[in-house]
């Protein structure tokens, strides 16, 4: 792709992993590894190149990058974290060899090894977990959903003291929302954070004991735990509305789609222009439902590479408010925003939302 003289080129990397056995089999096909494709195991190294990507922002800045994958599934990464970190480091090194100035970690890869700390300590390129941009996208999804529902359900949050959930709590309350946080046993740091937010006077934080008090027709639950699997789709009360933020998902899909509950994904961002990458970028977009919209954790290293602000990379459990503020400004500058609601990877139509609106709204 030719570039004019006023364009500045940047490069990023992003590390993913298969979320299911079929996705791992597809990874085997992509990397010409029959044992992985048909048996689910391989003797080859776990890190593989998937696609070379490119995009131009609204500012006419060009960015390209490498999408790399490891072979482990989420359960394997969580149960064998030392081996998982080693695999992720190999994938990061592939990205760095391709010239990446920053590398992002996707899904469970961002959780293990102290939320990316072990990986960051083992490589010579800035690492970011995507937690800050995921926080921003989740809050923008909340705002969009509230505007579409035509009324203000009571906002509830499941997940603190996880890093994304803590960021969501801070951002929503600073925007003036009243928030009920599910916390049967309130850790002292969480109580102090809530007290500080309440003293600032923009919004209000209170605590509830049970997640059941955050469901049903009067509530909107933002689920953002670090562990996932906290709720079952089959057991959600009728008229429940949940925004499930990032992998691993909190709502286990143990039944077919229910018409009487709404479970939305909470981290889709529209890209300023299509993210290109040939056939395998297209395949990745189809199986992960990331076509014109991508996950926030994916967008974070792209925006950091475009801006050159590697100081905004974060690993570990803390996401500083100033990082969220600066990344929010950069997302707007380069043309990433939340404009669509997604359910199971598909755009939510207006007629679907009508079931969950106030009848008099």
Structural summary, described in words:
It is a single chain. By secondary structure, this protein is α/β, with parallel strands linked by helices. The protein is 37% helix and 20% strand. It is built from 13 helices and 17 strands. It has helices at 21-30, 34-39, 74-79, 81-97, 112-115, 117-122, 131-149, 163-174, 188-200, 278-288, 296-307, 321-334, 350-354; strands at residues 9-16, 48-56, 62-69, 103-105, 127-128, 154-158, 178-182, 204-208, 219-223, 231-232, 241-244, 251-252, 262-265, 268-270, 293-295, 342-343, 346-347. A 6-stranded parallel beta sheet has the order 8-7-6-9-11-13. The chain has a 5-stranded mixed beta sheet with strand order 2-3-1-4-5. Strands 10-12 form a two-stranded parallel ribbon. The longest helix has 19 residues, at 131-149. It is globular and about 50 Å long. The chain starts with 8 loop residues before the first strand and ends in a 7-residue tail after the last helix.
């Amino acid at each position: 792709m030719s570039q004019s003289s006023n364009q500045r080129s940047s490069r990023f990397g992003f590390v993913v992993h298969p979320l299911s056995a079929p996705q791992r089999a597809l990874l085997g096909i992509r990397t010409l590894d029959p044992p992985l494709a048909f048996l689910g195991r391989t003797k080859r190294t776990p890190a593989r190149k998937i696609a070379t990507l490119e995009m131009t922002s609204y500012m006419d800045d060009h960015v390209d990058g490498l999408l790399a994958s490891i072979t482990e599934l989420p359960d394997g990464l969580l149960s064998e974290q030392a081996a998982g970190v080693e695999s992720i480091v190999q994938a990061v090194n592939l990205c760095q060899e391709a010239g990446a100035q920053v590398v992002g970690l996707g899904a469970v890869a961002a959780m293990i090894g102290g939320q990316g700390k072990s990986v960051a300590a083992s490589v010579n390129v800035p690492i970011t977990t995507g937690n800050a941009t995921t926080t921003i996208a989740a809050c923008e999804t909340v705002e969009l959903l509230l505007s579409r529902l035509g009324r203000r359900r009571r906002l509830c949050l499941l997940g603190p003291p996880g890093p994304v959930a803590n960021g969501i709590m801070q951002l929503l309350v600073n925007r003036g929302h009243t928030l009920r946080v599910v916390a049967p046993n309130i850790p002292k740091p969480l109580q102090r954070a809530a007290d500080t937010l309440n003293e600032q006077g923009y919004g209000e934080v209170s605590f509830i004991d049970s997640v059941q008090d955050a469901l049903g027709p009067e509530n909107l639950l933002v689920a953002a735990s670090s562990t996932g699997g906290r709720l079952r789709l089959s057991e959600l009360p009728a008229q429940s509305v949940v925004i499930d933020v990032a992998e691993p998902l909190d709502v286990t899909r143990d039944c077919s789609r229910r018409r009487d509950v709404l479970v939305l994904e909470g981290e889709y961002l529209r890209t300023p222009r299509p993210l290109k990458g040939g056939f395998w970028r297209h395949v990745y977009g189809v199986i992960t439902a990331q076509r014109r919209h991508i996950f926030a954790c994916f967008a974070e290293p792209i925006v950091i590479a475009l801006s050159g602000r590697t100081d905004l990379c974060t690993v570990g459990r803390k996401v500083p408010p100033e990082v969220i503020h600066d990344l929010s400004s950069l997302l707007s500058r380069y043309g990433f925003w939340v404009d669509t609601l997604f359910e199971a990877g598909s755009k939510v139509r207006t007629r679907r939302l009508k079931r969950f609106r106030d009848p008099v709204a």
